[in-house]
Design a protein that fits this description.
Biased composition (Low complexity) (chain B): 613-625
Number of helices of chain B: 38
Oligomer: heterodimer
GO biological process, one term (chain B): vesicle-mediated transport
Low-confidence stretches of chain A: none
Structural class of chain B: alpha+beta
Number of helices of chain A: 7
Structural class of chain A: alpha+beta
Helix content of chain A: 10-25%
Strand content of chain A: 35-45%
Helix content of chain B: 40-55%
Main location (chain B): membrane
Shape of chain A: globular
Domain Beta-adaptin appendage C-terminal subdomain (chain B): 845-955
Mean pLDDT of chain B: 77
Strand order of the largest sheet of chain A: 11-13-9-8-23-21-16-19-18
Mean pLDDT of chain A: 85
Protein name (chain B): AP complex subunit beta
Low-confidence stretches of chain B: 584-588, 597-722
Distance between the termini of chain A: 46 Å
Strand content of chain B: 5-15%
Chain lengths: 418, 956
């Protein structure tokens, strides 16, 4: 099982170590640092590294490396999943996951890690359970604690830990009972030069924020559940009922959680909300090139496309650029050669356009590669797959909760090839 | 207020300050001090000097303080064992605390203090906690057993903790079950043969119940444990699959992949025609696709596993090509894996899409990725014949880009395309030649030289091209040098008039100026060949090349099977069996997939996981030594340098030598590599074939000149006309007494490749019989009726009818004892009757059972000697020729015959309907009625049955 965890910042400094079995020397990380040196980008460090006595499994997240050391045959996915949980836990407790935050809450992070694993076996990874054992810091609580001398650590046995619904804490009480669901869809797509869809799919997720007293039993139904043939659920969802009736029936965890993720990859169902006309060309002789990009709405179902942003990794040999945008503004970092054009809201009457010249370093050959365009966008109040929530029913409790559903469509990995 | 304040120090020195605070009377101050200590510890500062002061804070009812002290203890107890003893009492006391949280915390922490002295005190509290009324304490205690085992395995066994742990598998609480399984799995890893996880249908049921209720992590442990179980039959297998499938929709990818492992393994046992089998296949695709939308690290592990799954069952993902398309910001390790899978999934149906993608990738930034993409195009051409033309034109387009590394990769793959489709795409050679100068990598240069040599007759200036390479001959890598040598010799053989000078130059460069033995020896061989017999040289050098196979990088099937059993583990990431890399893998067991179509031994093995070294359920594919290997051997023969150095030493004696060199050399090679004769060297038949060895013959070739294999090869089609297959006489299988008047006798036969069951049904009762039907129980070779029993007219009293029932071998498989036992049920209007009969295994011998000689040699060698069994056939008066003919009638093919000291050795091969090969060596001595037969087979169980067939065939 998982032996140790090291948190490493991008410059290679280890700023936290935790061992669940015997202590493993820090020097084991040298193999990792070596691999990191070799990789061009921090993202490119291989996730599984074999050293003479250990295996190093790492993830790169929020500009930090989470590196775990294992000694025996352990499913690597198990380790990777766990490392992501650690990152999520830090995010959840302290609002962000960064080196500063971890350093500021060193002892609490350490206590949390101790609760998450025992001898390398996962112990409590549900945020509901953890929060009951170790309360997240708030300004009010730290003041109260200093005054009264009480601690952040709960001292009663958690009912949730042993019941068949370990994800929900007992005795929840709210004055305002509310249940909100966000249906978020991300479009992953690759378009080729001519704008034809090479590949497109939708990654959907239903995020829930449920603040209901007692033990509510919820049933969420969709207008068109047939859309969803590939789903994964939070453990609280009763799978049998989904299989037979296509409804989500569950006793929710308290607070924020991901109820379900789904996946629509039938090509005809994936609408592409924008089109991009682009040309990036370099002149055969000379050291100049031109860039011309126009973005326009395509299948938007009558909604406005906002937050449009185009990102281009320009070739390394570019020396400088001189562009004009008819809408929004662009930034260009000559170090990373990253061009970001922030357009904002898309106006169908007047299409935004970015054009101008690129100049290459003197004597550099015509770049061999074609840079791809990465598109970002957002559409409020629309799930692009057409998924709609029908109704939410609650059983088991008497009060009437506030209910709400919000839809949003975003671009995931949305790329246009040139 | 943050913890960073804990790092501030004062002038007096940190440790001193902390010590004072730890001994403070105020609770709050104490706690703050301990926090400071812990903070220092987490960043790797040494605060062990404070040990006694921190331990003093342990006696408290403040849970947070207690936990903090425990954290400290776990870290430093090892370095201060004597001090740690001080803490023992508190632990023991805490284990009795009314609060289960404290009991659990105490037992958990105690296990983490890796000090021998403490473990002794741990035993009693642990025993109590394992039986605690609170499941939280039990679940914590279960893990503690694993900790203790890690420190002192003997102690755990002596104290009987392992048995208690096993009992916990039947605990009422699913978390306890999950933790017990996890602990046992970890312990079992260091005790591969301990049978700790002795799974039976009852415990499996318990696990499946717990699976639905425990945490996601527990599910992983349980699923991994389930994967080690081998169901008794396909029904149990199906029911487990049904209960595992919901896990495919879990949000945790590790759960999903573990479930995939269980399903992939148990699916193996389901009959393919079952509806459920198809449903299951369909259900596997979406979760695998979903894994690819997760974080890149998860994707990587998923892709490595999908690579295995695609090789084992390509049908699962064949429609999902698009999800493997590469996005430009995928990390490089994901890109390379996706590319691999794309090629594996490439087929005629999707090749256009794939090629368009690959062409796109070939213009990306990352050099490694681009190279692999170009290579992939070549692999597509070789894999999907219909696409070859398009691939070649894509490659030509890429060559036009003039990007150096793209051009080089393209040339390397075009060489392979030429090999695969000779005389089809040579029109592109001109384009290739234009790029000669830009090639700077050995592999690309060698490929280009090979192309020039191979097509020398079509390239006008081939000699100039090759000559240009020759200038820097000594600076080239060996690969290029060897290729250049061969290419020039080819050129010379094709255009002898103009290139004599060139060939002399290269031969002398290779033989005189090079110190590379491979190069030198190949040079000598060519030299000798050319100088003695150019015609023979032509035949050797310009011989037709065997076609290259489609998939060169497939994982070997037995390894693949083992890896499938390890889906989701490190082994699946490395594509190596765990024994190959897991540290301290104390005899890691080899896992095998359960058998469906094999001879059935897999299904009844109590634990397939333990069947290490056992025979593979399906006959493993024989490893065919490629022509290349033999040639390689030939070239590596270390010849003594000839005494003459002139380029044309063509005396008649030399000519003889040259001939013998090859003739004898080849034979002797064959002899060395064939284990059939054994004592060839000493046999008088040796050396008689060829005349005296010429004086310049290298010593190493002197002894075994001519010989056995020459004889073997001469046999050719010398086997006489085949006779009909042996059919045993009919016997009564079901006496009328037992079957209410129905008597059944019958036999089995193989006619024109169809297995027939020939039945004689006699009605000895007083009433008419109708509505006949027949069914077989599962049997070793999957025999099943291929059609209904054709008894159309009612069978009147005292009537007899002969029916022949065609059989297929695709029915369900179960190992029977004896192997060839068949249980049959026959139904008529009166009742259902059961009987069993034994069939001669010879009816399973298929018509294409004749092995290639080389394959035979290699296979014979490859099968371990343990699998060889010897039998005597007594009182048989046939000569070897007649025996061979007779056997051929029953699809026992004689591949070769050799006569040694009046004893005929017949080498024979048999292929069973389920793909098992049996190799046989039959010794027949003239005048001796007793034959000796040795049988070699990867599934030695069948040997006895095969021997019975030999006996039956030969004696009838």
């Amino acid at each position: 099982m998982i032996n140790s965890l090291f948190l490493i910042n991008p410059s290679g400094e280890m700023f936290l170590e935790k061992h669940w079995k015997s202590v493993v020397s820090r020097s084991v990380c040298d193999y990792f640092l070596e691999a990191k040196e070799k990789a061009l980008e921090p993202e490119d460090v291989p996730p599984v590294i074999h050293t003479p006595h250990h295996y190093l499994i790492s993830i790169y997240r929020d500009k930090l490396f989470f590196l775990s050391v294992i000694q025996t045959e352990v499913p690597p996915l198990f380790v990777i999943e766990f490392l992501h949980r650690v990152a999520e836990m830090i995010q959840d407790y302290f609002g962000e996951c960064s080196e500063t935050v971890v350093k500021d809450h060193m002892v609490m992070v350490y206590e949390l890690l101790e609760e998450m694993l025992d001898n390398g076996f996962p112990l409590a990874t549900e945020s509901n359970v953890l929060k009951e054992m170790i309360r997240p810091p708030t300004i009010l609580r730290s003041v109260v604690n200093t005054l009264t001398g009480t601690s952040n650590v709960g001292d009663t046995l958690l009912t949730g830990q042993l019941s068949t619904i370990p994800w929900r804490r007992a005795g929840v009480r709210y004055t305002n009972n509310e249940a909100y669901f966000d249906v978020v869809e991300e479009i992953d797509a690759i378009l080729d030069q001519s704008g034809t869809t090479v590949f497109a799919e939708i990654q959907g997720v239903v995020e829930a924020c449920v603040k209901l007293s007692g033990m509510p039993d919820l049933t969420l139904s969709f207008m068109n559940p047939r859309l969803l043939d590939d789903v994964s659920f939070h453990p609280c969802v009763r799978y049998k009922l989904w299989e037979s009736e296509r409804v989500l029936s569950f006793i929710p965890p308290d607070g924020n959680f991901t109820l379900m993720t789904y996946h629509v990859n039938a090509q005809n169902l994936v609408a592409i909300p924008v089109y991009v006309k682009q040309s990036i060309s370099f002149f055969e002789c000379g050291s100049d090139g031109r860039l011309d990009v126009t973005v326009g709405p395509k299948q938007t179902m009558g909604k406005t496309v906002e937050g449009v942003m185009v990102t281009v990794h320009l070739p390394k040999t570019i020396l400088s650029i001189n562009l004009t945008a008819t809408q929004g503004s662009y930034t260009y970092d000559n170090g990373t050669k990253l061009l970001v054009w922030d357009i904002g809201k898309l106006n169908p009457q007047k299409l935004p356009n970015l054009r101008g010249s690129l100049s290459l370093q003197a004597g550099a050959p015509k770049p061999e590669e074609n840079p791809s365009l990465n598109i970002d966008l957002k559409i409020q109040q629309l799930a692009i797959s057409g998924l709609k929530v029908n109704r939410l029913d609650m059983f088991g409790e008497k009060y009437k909760p506030f209910k709400g559903v919000k839809y949003i469509t975003k671009a995931g990995k949305f790329q246009v090839r040139t | 207020m943050t913890d960073s304040k804990y790092f501030t120090t004062t002038k007096k020195g940190e440790i001193f300050e902390l010590k004072a605070e730890l001994n403070s009377d105020k609770k709050e101050k104490k706690k703050e001090a301990v926090k400071k200590v812990i903070a220092s510890m987490t960043v790797g500062k040494d605060v062990s000097a404070l040990f006694p002061d921190v331990v003093n804070c342990m006696q408290t009812d403040n849970l947070e303080l207690k936990k903090l002290v425990y954290l400290y203890l776990m870290n430093y107890a090892k370095s201060q064992p004597d001090m740690a003893i001080m803490a023992v009492n508190t632990f023991v006391k805490d284990c009795e605390d009314p609060n289960p949280l404290i009991r659990a915390l105490a037992v958990r922490t105690m296990g983490c203090i890796r000090v021998d002295k403490i473990t002794e005190y741990l035993c009693e509290p642990l025993r109590k906690c394992l039986k605690d009324e609170d499941p939280y304490v039990r679940k914590t205690a279960a893990v503690c057993v694993a900790k203790l085992h890690d420190i002192n395995a003997q102690l755990v066994e002596d104290q009987g903790f392992l048995d208690t742990l096993k009992d916990l598998i039947s605990d009422s609480n699913p978390m306890v079950v999950a933790n017990a399984v996890a602990a046992l799995s970890e312990i079992a890893e260091s005790h591969p043969n301990s049978n700790l996880l002795d799974l039976n249908p009852q415990s499996i049921n318990k696990l499946l119940t717990a699976l639905n209720e425990c945490t996601e992590w527990g599910q992983i442990f349980i699923l991994d444990c389930l994967a080690n179980y081998t169901p008794r039959d396909d029904r149990e297998s199906q029911s487990i699959c049904e209960r595992v499938t919901p896990r495919l929709s879990h949000a945790n990818s590790a759960v999903v992949l573990s479930a995939v492992k269980v399903l992939m393994k148990f699916m193996e046992m389901l009959p393919k025609d079952l509806d459920y089998y198809g449903t299951l296949l369909k259900k596997l695709a979406p979760p695998l696709v979903t894994l690819l939308s997760a974080e890149p690290e998860l994707q990587y592990v998923a892709l490595r596993n999908i690579n295995l799954i695609v090789q084992k069952r390509p049908e699962i993902l064949k429609h999902e090509m698009k999800v493997f398309f590469v996005k430009y910001n995928d990390p490089i390790y994901v890109k390379l894996e996706k590319l691999d899978i794309m090629i594996r999934l490439a087929s005629q149906a999707n090749i256009a899409q794939v090629l368009a993608e690959l062409k796109e990738y070939a213009t990306e930034v990352d050099v490694d990725f681009v190279r692999k993409a170009v290579r992939a195009i070549g692999r597509c051409a070789i894999k999907v014949e219909q696409s070859a033309e398009r691939c070649v034109s894509t490659l030509l387009d890429l060559i036009q880009t003039k990007v150096n590394y793209v051009v080089q990769e393209a040339i390397v793959v075009i060489k392979d395309i030429f090999r695969k489709y000779p005389n089809k795409y040579e029109s592109v050679i001109a384009t290739l030649c234009e790029n000669l100068d830009s090639l700077d990598e050995p592999e690309a240069r060698a490929a280009m030289i090979w192309i020039v040599g191979e097509y020398a007759e079509r390239i006008d200036n081939a000699d100039e091209l090759l000559e240009s390479f020759l200038e820097g001959f000594h600076d080239e890598s060996t690969q290029v040098q060897l290729q250049l040598l061969t290419a020039i010799v080819k050129l010379f053989l094709k255009k002898p008039t103009e290139t004599q000078e060139l060939v002399q130059q290269v031969l002398s460069l290779a033989t005189q100026d090079s110190d590379n033995p491979d190069l030198r020896d190949r040079g000598y061989i060519y030299w000798r060949l050319l100088s003695t017999d150019p015609v023979a040289a032509k035949e050797v050098v310009l011989a037709e090349k065997p076609l290259i196979s489609e998939e060169t990088d497939l994982i070997e099937p037995t390894l693949l099977e083992e890896l499938i059993c390890h889906i989701g583990t490190l082994a699946s990431v490395y594509h190596k069996p765990p024994s190959a890399f897991v540290e301290g893998s104390r005899g890691v067991m080899h896992k095998r997939l359960p058998a469906r179509t094999g001879s059935g031994e897999g299904t009844e093995c109590p634990d397939v996981g333990n069947a290490a070294g056992g025979s593979a359920p399906e006959a493993a594919p024989s490893i065919i030594p490629s022509q290349g290997d033999l040639l390689g051997d030939l070239l590596n023969l270390d010849l003594a340098p000839p005494t003459t150095t002139g380029p044309t030493p063509s005396t008649s004696g030399m000519q003889m030598g040259g001939m013998d060199l090859l003739g004898g050399g080849l034979d002797s090679l064959m002899d060395e590599s064939e284990p059939l004769g054994g004592d060839i060297g000493g046999s008088p038949a040796m050396g008689a074939g060829f005349g005296a060895a010429p004086t310049v013959m290298p010593a190493s070739l002197n002894a075994p000149v001519g010989g056995g294999l020459g004889d073997l090869f001469d046999l050719g089609g010398g086997v006489g006309m085949p006779m009909g297959a042996y059919i045993p006489p009919k016997t009564v299988w079901l006496p009328a007494m037992k079957a209410k008047g129905l008597e059944i006798s019958g036999t089995f036969a193989r006619r024109a490749g169809v297995i027939q069951m020939e039945l004689v049904l006699t009605n000895k009762a007083m009433s008419v019989m109708t509505d006949f039907a027949i069914q077989f129980n599962r049997n070793s070779f999957g025999l099943a009726p291929a059609g209904p029993l054709q008894v159309l007219t009612p069978l009147g009293p005292n009537q007899t009818i002969e029916v022949s029932l065609p059989l297929s071998t695709v029915g369900p498989v179960m190992k029977m004892d004896p192997l060839n036992n068949l249980q049959v049920a026959v139904k008529n209007n009166i009742d259902v009757f059961y009987f069993s009969c034994q069939y001669p295994i010879s009816m399973l011998f298929v018509e294409d059972g004749k092995m290639e000689r080389q394959v035979f040699l290699a296979t014979w060698k490859d099968i371990p000697n343990d699998n060889e069994s010897q039998f005597q056939i007594q009182d048989c008066h046939l000569n070897s020729e007649a025996a061979s003919n007779k056997l051929q009638g029953s699809n026992i093919f004689t591949i070769a015959k050799r006569t040694v000291e009046g004893q005929d050795m017949l080498y024979m091969s048999i292929k069973l309907s389920n793909g098992i090969w049996v190799l046989a060596e039959l010794k027949v001595q003239a005048g001796n009625p007793n034959y000796t037969i040795s049988l070699k087979c990867r599934a030695p169980e069948v040997s006895q049955c095969v021997f019975q067939c030999y006996e039956a065939v030969l004696k009838n």
